[in-house]
Amino acid sequence: MGGPGGLGLVQLRRGKRRARGEPLVGDYTRVALQGSGHGVRIALPAGLMDTLTIRRPDDWHLHLRDGAMLQAVLPETARHFARAIIMPNLLPPVVTLADAAAYRDRILAALPPGMVFEPLMTLYLTEGTDPANVAAAAASGLVKAVKLYPAGATTNSQSGVRDLARVMPVLEKMAEIGLPLCTHGEVTTPEVDIFDREAVFIDTVLDPLRRRLPELRLVMEHITTGEGVAYAAEAGEGLAATITTHHLILNRNHILAGGIRPHYYCLPVAKREKHRLALRRAATSGSPRYFLGTDSAPHVDALKEDACGCAGCFTATNTMSLLAHLFEEDGALDRLEGFTSLHGPAFYRLPVNQGTLRLEKRPDQCLWPDKISSDAGPVTVFNPGFPVHWHVVA
Ligand code: DOR
Ligand code: ZN
């Protein structure tokens, strides 16, 4: 069953729950979705679907960190996801092919026995990055993208880019060889309001860059605004946007009204409700321009619950259950597979996963740990603030 552009399979079951081991007979709807998931809608009342089998998902934007934290968070992702694009913002950052190869080895060494997971590595773009090293990294097959952090935009971005002109030779090389650029799309100019930083980035950095280098393949990472949604919608197949789970749930009131909630603080910061709704429409639209990048970003509680708390929501543990809940709420369960398992591989020109993930809606609420423990300290698991009943069962 096909690679990118091939067939996707969504299996939806309605009616009574099946006892464990009971054969798959009866009231099934089995639907072949064309590549992107476009154009097929299943007219089943949402409340009647209670199992969902999709191709094993990938996470196209993930922070795994290193050392004790890596050890603690990796199983949370590997339990459900086959692959993930691994962010390179370590200290020091993952800049060269050699850095990426060594980091990949550390990730694989941290994988618990019996778990299968493929880290898709990225390089951190600096003003000293060598275009030839980037070309070698792409040719090796080990590195799948380069990450642009505007210097000062977010966690460990101090080695990032201050002046885009200085990295043009690298970007030109990437355009030539088809290696995607993942952008943290926020300007860092102090005068620009933090809630406007994405929209200003699109107008003053992203759009001029695309006009100058139309061949550059580009991912707008973790979009948070209607402007981001609209920009990606109008682009051709060389541009895509990732959307996080938490930005589909949170608006800025959730962070700030009635007390500051540090575990909802991330970057780009969640925006007004109208932007959250635009993200929901994009994610559930079936358009191949949008796919999941959780940006699951663990920090120990001591660093989140601080006078100057770190940015990041840790969603690896419960993302798939949350997404099933949200897509069902929007009458789009049949489009979940496109968002989590088909559109990403199509953009990155990788085969889709062969395995599957099965979710079941049950009367009992999903119970996740409040925190996962690491030798570096506890990490709070994202709390959506509403009950969720979609359990990942296999
Ligand atoms: O919230 C965030 N956390 N946004 C980022 O861009 C970086 C990430 C991190 O590394 O903690
Ligand atoms: Zn990130």
Proportion of strand residues: 15-25%
Low-confidence runs (pLDDT<50, min 5 residues)? 1-46
What's the end-to-end separation, in Å? Answer: 20 Å
* Annotation, overall tally of beta strands: 15
Shape: globular
The SSE string, one letter per element, is EEEEHEHEHEHEHEHEHHEHHHEEEE
Oligomeric form: single chain
- Give the mean pLDDT: 90
CATH-assigned homologous superfamily: Metal-dependent hydrolases
Name given to the CATH architecture: Alpha-Beta Barrel
What do we call the CATH topology? Answer: TIM Barrel
Radius of gyration: 20 Å
Description:
With 394 residues, the protein is an alpha/beta fold. The protein has a single domain, classed as Metal-dependent hydrolases (TIM Barrel), CATH 3.20.20. It is 29% helix and 19% strand. It contains 11 helices and 15 strands. The protein has helices at 67-78, 97-110, 131-140, 168-177, 197-212, 226-234, 252-256, 273-283, 301-304, 319-329, 336-348; strands spanning 7-14, 28-34, 49-55, 58-62, 83-86, 118-124, 143-148, 181-183, 218-220, 239-243, 290-292, 356-361, 371-374, 377-380, 390-392. Strands 4-5-6-7-8-9-10-11 form an 8-stranded parallel sheet, with helices on both faces. Strands 2-1-3-12-15 form a 5-stranded antiparallel sheet, with helices on one face. A two-stranded antiparallel ribbon has the order 13-14. Residues 1-46 have low confidence and may be disordered. (4S)-2,6-dioxohexahydropyrimidine-4-carboxylic acid is lined by residues 63, 89, 154-155, 184, 266-267, 295, 297, 311-312.
